[in-house]
Amino acid sequence: MSFEPKIVAFLCNWCSYAGADLAGVSRYKCAPNVMSIRLMCSGGLEPSFVLKAFKEGADGVLVCGCNLGDCHYTDGNYKTLMRMTLLKKLTEQLGIEEPRVRLQWVCASCAEDFTNAVNRITEDVRALGPYKKEKVEVESGKNT
Amino acid sequence: MSILKGKPDDDIKIGVYVCHCGHNIASTVDVEEVARRAKELGEVSVARDYVYMCSSKGQNLIRQDIMQLGINRVVVAACSPRLYEQTFQNVLRESGLNPYLLQVANIREQCAWLHEPGPLATEKANRLVKGAIKRVIHHSPIEEQSVPVFPATLVIGGGIAGIQAALEIANSQQIVYLVEREPSIGGHMAQFDKTFPTLDCSACILTPKMNEVARNPYIRLMTYSEVVEVSGYVGNFNVKVRRKARYIDEDKCVGCGICVEKCPWSTESEFDADLGVRKAVYTPFPQAIPNIPVIDKERCVYFLKGKCRACEKFCEAKAINFQQEDLFIELHVGAIIVATGYDVFDPTPISQYGYGRLPNVFTSLEFERLCSPSGPTGGQLKLADGREPKSLAVIHCVGSRDQNYNAYCSRVCCMHSLKYSHLFKEKTGGEVYQIYIDMRCTGKGYEEFYERVQGEHVRFIRGKLATITADSPDSETGEKLSLSCEDTLLGGLVNIPVDMAVLCVALEPRHDAEQVAQILRLGRSRDGFFMERHPKLDPVATMSEGIFIVGCCQGPKDIPDTVAQASAAAARALAMIVRGKMETGAITAAIDETLCSACKVCNALCPYGAIFFDEVSNVSRVNRILCKGCNVCGAACPSGAISTRNFSESQILAEIEGVLV
Amino acid sequence: MVALTPFKEAADMLMEAGAEKLDNCYQCGLCTGSCPWNQVRSFLVRRIIHQAQLGVIDFESEDLWLCTTCRNCVQRCPRGVEIIDIMKAMRRVITETGTAKIPDSLRLAITNIAGAGNPLGEPPEQRGDWAAPLRLKHKADSSTLYFSCCIPAYEPKVKRVARATAQVLKTSGTDFNILASRENCCGESVRKAGDENLFNSLAEKNIKAFSEAGIKQILVSSPHCYHSFKNEYSKLGADFEVLHIVQYLAPLVSEGKFKFKKEVKKKVAYHDSCYLARHNGIYDEPRRILESIPGIELVELPDVKENTLCCGGGGGRIWMDTKKDERFSDLRIQQALDVGADVLAVSCPYCMLNFEDSLLGFSNTKTVEIKDVVELICEGL
User: Fold this and answer.
1) CATH: 1.10.10, 3.30.1460, 3.40.50, 3.30.530. Which one for B14-142?
2) C-chain residues near B462 (CB < 8 A)
3) Can you say how many angstroms the Cα of residue B82 is from the centroid of all Cα atoms in its chain?
């Protein structure tokens, strides 16, 4: 059987989750490998969420927030941007290949941006193969 | 409201309800399989699938299980929680369960509709449902809160927007504080001559409203005053107002005007767009409300040189008081309506239009004052050399629809341009050229007004003006302006010689909009105007609960739209006051004080100022009324002390585990 | 009547050739109104843009070759349409597909540049000859290059600019190199005339020559060389500090590096070149230099700085024939005469060439001298 990646997406409630809903409403099609988890704001994403996902067997993580300047909470997504920059450094140190962690802004009417991001990360991760989760366990232990 | 039953240490009994949504879900996802798989999980007591879970029959299934089987956690696998989460929460509430013991798995928009039918779609639905099951175990009841609303409203800005909002509220016999920066209320509307499309005189329709404000016992009017500080939250704002020193005792002054008459010092009148003069002690215009002058400290010779006091000598009421100082007043209000209006665009930077260099090039606001019978020329149109102009060009979109200045359309200029054409024809009978890009006449009676003005032999030239230059003076006609642009309909460059040109300048955010936004914690949209909560469905509310925006501070608009918004905001404020309380969001951050290390990182991060530091207990605390539950603080807390209700770390981690394992 | 079946391929070709933001145009005609051509003949820029939007372009029309790329329209455009890029893209489509005829005079210049590295078709080995009478000691190891531009290198009427510049640089104690026959035309106008391939090959040759000579800093006399080196070569990976000669000299003049011995008792009007002023925002340096030269009375022309009037030489027009009564340079000379200037100061070889040509057509009752800013420095020394 071919490798089907498991990917977790964290979506902010106001733009990205609405954009993903719109993708469904518009009947856009995308890979069924991404499971969405709703947050109130992408700025509320705790680094432990991402590490936990890899620990529990995710092959990739997608983080989506409102376009910069459009955050429902004024500037939460700028915090996401800074946090993701740091987090990507950490995940790379842990040996998680760069394409497995992605940040994508998805506005409430940007359904296609969402499905494109889903397809892109699915294909990238499929090409990389399954993530060997042993690497992250030690590090994320204290966070979970 | 009491916390309904469902404590975390209860025996957990989960009910799972999988919706077919007719064929919407069932044709892609094997819903029966999803229910079957859910049932296999230890924590799940009952798992059902049903054709329409949102129907009353579907709701009843859940209700019965809660009542009869003692279900105390509910997972609904159906459409997006953005649609029916509240409906299902109500089912729980009605069944005596706290509504936050529910989790919705979105297997329609984000599963069935996104994917092709088959095992992979069903597999994803299974995972989403399992995530919800694992998550709901960690749910605990949340107490919904309400706050009392103090029955008073602050209206900031005394233009037509603020006047209308204040009157609506005061007419319901509720207290309004109306704070205006200038010495009189009236705003820009008081400066206009006539109003489109009906051409009623602006002062004639505005003055009665201004007088009403002065008379209404429920309105506390504070002119020459500014809001400097706002703290608190919806229902309970504390507002600090600076009442600038007038140097005239408001209680003693009888408004006789002798001080103005006797003052020997003149300066440019702001009200007349600097075209006319006023005294150093002045009321901006004759119908000013209140009819109490102010002494302009920057211009008064007594303040500048220590000599004069002419006004004091003549004031029989002994109202002049040079010792007066600024006063700071604290107000307590439940709601705030922001009606701070707009500034007009300064066209000087468009150097090819010659504004400021060519004396017969005016802005729209200046032209209003020239037309006004109370203006500097008594309503007579005059050129710089005193002649009456024989021809006029009205230039549209100056600083609007132009990404070099403001990308947006200022909405009112097409209409006031038509009005100027009519007024010019009426006053002089001369030639009028409209230089426009598109005519936008979309209000009631507006297109008809356009047609009427066309019928007055106004010439319309479609194109954006390129340059204005001064032609060398002709002995017969004096100096003329030469305008040049492409008439895009003729397909050629045209030169238009006119005596006078009016630049219809953009409506811009107030120069100090950023400062006001900070005081009130308002957002601003890209154009710089204050941001509404929703551009279509909630245009007068803001992201700051209990604070409303009306009129041009939210975006350029005409008088009818401004008045409608003002009434709408007044209704919203009254609704709060009449009920006397406000429900606040349940999803808010909570700080575990035993874990808080007092680092204050969260204090600075919160976009709503909802976290404050309690110096006595040495911990940070959350004001639940201000908190909007974004969890930015939770994500940043180095001690892991902050968690957001219904979006806690343990809940999300459990959901992650559920969707993956 | 135009049958409006939008020719999508034409629009697509333009987009590919760099016609940015074409669709954003709302047809206000400010471009037409701002275009200097309309002071001498009709040239409906707006209509061309609309034709481009619809893909109904008349590639045979001579209008496509008129734009001097002076940037007055782009600067004012309320929708940020890159009109120069659109004009350039249309010319590129003609050049690359042979859809229509390229004007003869332009084709000749381009052939010359392709063959000899300069538009005049002069032998490359004579490119450095202008410097011969100066007996410059070439500092072959200097990392500063003085790049004269083809016109001052070969054109007899303009050679004096290169010579004056070398003289002034020498006086200021600046070590500089001249690459003479190793230099090629910068290609700025070639690109605007639509020959992207030739531009790329010129840029490649120049970048290679500069790098091999160890050049770090380039001083130029022409705003066109300045524009291409600074804004276009840098996108091709070049990394040189590029300064127009007025930028380099202005601080030296302020610091008192030059001991002016003579008074230059002249009324001088400065003509802002499009590529220095509008394209690159350099207005103050030349004026500062002129004001520092003793004796000079600086007067301003009616259209200055960002509103300057083009000489007519940009966008490859310098090589194309312009009808006698359609020259903007004539209007500019008249402006200079109207303000009573003795000297019309320039800082661009194209402007100088066009003004010198225009002067021939003016009656000699009253006239004005055309001088480079650097020449005026020389006069004061």
Assistant:
1) 3.40.50
2) 29
3) 25
